[in-house]
TrEMBL record:
Source domain of life: Bacteria
Gene3D superfamilies the record matches: Aldehyde Dehydrogenase, Chain A, domain 1 (3.40.605.10), Aldehyde Dehydrogenase, Chain A, domain 2 (3.40.309.10)
GO molecular function, one term: aldehyde dehydrogenase (NAD+) activity
InterPro entries in the cross-refs: Ald_DH/histidinol_DH (IPR016161), Ald_DH_C (IPR016163), Ald_DH_CS_GLU (IPR029510), Ald_DH_N (IPR016162), Aldehyde_DH_dom (IPR015590), ALDH7A1-like (IPR044638)
Oligomer status and interactors: Homotetramer.
Pfam family for this entry, one: Aldedh
Active site: E264
Protein name (database record): aldehyde dehydrogenase (NAD(+))
EC number, as in UniProt: 1.2.1.3
Key words, A-Z: NAD, Oxidoreductase
Length: 528
């Protein structure tokens, strides 16, 4: 992956782990890492000090020490802190979005939308500080009250990927803090500068020291640190966004300590095009779902499942739209920019080897990296400076192909056909993921049948497979997650535990199911 070097004058930041308001002591630092601008590979964005397992465990211990005082802060006051965080992010939205674009190559318009999602999340949870409702429950005995309360779980360890370096962490951090928990956040190393900026904004919203901590570490040291913290009893909940493979390891680790993690994992998201679909609308949705953010979303389109009667027409329109799409420098109005970093580029090149002789590749005859020697018409900028890749559309995909069964994180969309609707549903469920699925149809019966039978956590009708809103549950099933949900009121169940209380003021011991009052019914009565 050679690249022609360009001169860069952008500043490089130094990023360190912050625990209880202070940098972790030097003895916890394991190694250094540099994050680079994937659009200009010679431009260092941040020099990151990574900590080892002991450093991660120390952060969890510090969070444990500070959590009780924060839990004792009235929930409406915690809500006002979240309100301040939202205003700080909103006031810094353009600068934060520009940093996201610089560090991971996400087009600026999408990065600005990602920052907007943090603000929306904060705005939603402002009021939840006044609505952490319990219930009063009628007792079966007199002079006795039954009540329920939401209690914070304690310390939440949040481990997030870098494709959404600020929005997805906020999905965990904001409700976790609102519920009275302390947080230890481990962001992706290649998005450390974006994470550090978000941490600075959130930490200035009035949070006590130790309630929000940020730790930079690689994957293996993070896993080892989690093992230490779980054994020490200083982590009470794990929130993880990343690959299904790592999610399995996290789930096994948490299970050994009788914990249920919040897992948001990968997807192989289907989009079904029915005979009565608006094909132009379906093309627009598939283009954004498949190639927005360079296909580097967990909700990105994996396989188009198109009815055979419209397959040729749809494929011609879709490939024409892909060919006409603008790709390039992410600071401009492009469909997508570079891949996240070299590791993801190398992995994408491996996915391209899964293309078999029975497949038909549409667009560029030799998919791969865009360079001056391997150009793309209409490319914006200098392709040799970054990790830019041709969009790939592969038709003739079969249910036993790796391209059909496995997530291909990058700008690659498979296409297959179906004859009967039952076959489309079977194909949609076959890979075993269950994050997002979409159907394009003008028939209500088809839409609701698809919703009922497709095993995805999120269903779209006449819309993209991508697109979350702060007040709607987000999450998947099967290989896409363990059924936990983020966003909206549903996420409160991840960061609180129900506690029940019975208060007997009768002045005597009343035994449940034994001392209950009874009425007498005449069950033998019949109308004359």
């Amino acid at each position: 992956m050679s690249t022609r070097h360009v001169t860069s004058t952008a500043a490089t930041s130094s990023v360190a782990s912050i625990v209880a308001g202070k940098p972790l002591p030097q003895e916890h630092t394991a190694q250094g890492r540099v994050s680079y601008n994937p659009a200009r590979l010679d431009e260092a964005v941040a020099e990151v000090e990574l900590v080892g397992a002991d450093g991660f465990a120390a952060a969890c211990a510090a969070a444990k020490a500070g959590q009780q005082a924060w839990a004792g802060t009235p929930a409406p006051v915690r809500g006002r802190t979240i309100a301040a965080a939202g205003r700080l992010v909103e006031a810094n939205a353009e600068r934060l979005a520009a940093l996201v674009t610089r560090e991971i190559g996400k087009p600026y318009a999408e990065a600005l939308g990602e920052v907007r999602e943090i603000v929306d999340t904060c705005d939603f949870f402002i009021g939840e500080g006044r609505r952490l409702y319990g219930q009063t429950v009628p007792s079966e005995m007199p002079d006795k009250q039954l009540l329920t309360f939401r209690e914070p779980v304690g310390v939440v360890a949040v481990v997030t990927a870098g494709n959404f370096p600020v929005a997805v962490p906020a999905w965990y951090i904001v409700p976790a803090l609102l519920c009275g928990n302390a947080v230890v956040w481990k962001p992706a190393e290649y998005a450390a500068a974006s994470a550090a900026a978000l941490y600075e904004l959130l930490s200035r919203a009035g949070l006590p020291e130790g309630v929000l901590n940020i730790v930079h570490a690689d994957g293996e040291q993070t896993f080892a640190g989690l093992e230490k913290a779980l054994a020490a009893g200083t982590v009470d909940k794990i929130g993880f966004t990343g690959s299904s493979e790592v999610g399995v390891r996290i789930g096994e680790l948490a299970g050994r300590h009788l914990q249920s993690p919040c897992l948001e994992l990968g997807g192989k998201n289907p989009l079904v095009v029915t005979p009565d679909a608006d094909l132009d609308l379906a093309v627009e949705g598939a283009l954004f779902a498949g190639f927005g953010s360079a296909g580097q979303r967990c909700t990105s389109l994996g396989t188009l499942i198109v009815h055979e009667s419209v397959a040729d027409d749809f494929l011609a329109r879709f490939t024409a739209a892909v060919d006409a799409a603008t790709i390039g420098e992410p600071t401009g109005p492009v469909l997508y920019g570079p891949l996240l970093n070299r590791r993801f580029a190398e992995r994408f090149e491996e996915y391209l080897t899964w293309i078999r002789p029975h497949h038909t590749v549409h667009g560029h005859a030799r998919p791969g990296r865009i360079t001056a020697a391997h150009p793309r018409a209409g490319f914006v900028g200098d392709p040799d400076t970054g990790l830019y890749y041709h969009p790939v559309v592969v038709s003739g995909v079969r249910p036993d192909d790796r391209l059909f069964l496995e997530e291909t994180f990058g700008p690659l969309v498979g296409v297959t056909t179906y004859r009967e609707f039952d076959e489309a549903v079977e194909l949609a469920n076959a890979p075993g993921y269950g994050l997002s699925a979409a159907v394009y149809t003008n028939d209500a019966h088809t839409a609701f049948t698809f919703r009922r039978r497709v095993r995805a956590g999120m269903i779209s009708v006449n819309n993209s497979t991508s697109g979350a809103e702060a007040h709607l549950p987000f999450g998947g099933n099967g290989r896409s997650g363990n059924g936990s949900r983020q966003s909206g009121v549903w996420v409160l169940d991840q960061f609180t535990r129900w506690q029940s209380m019975n208060w007997d003021y009768s002045g005597r011991l009343q035994k449940a199911q034994m001392d209950t009052a009874e009425t007498v019914a005449d069950l033998d009565y019949r109308l004359p």
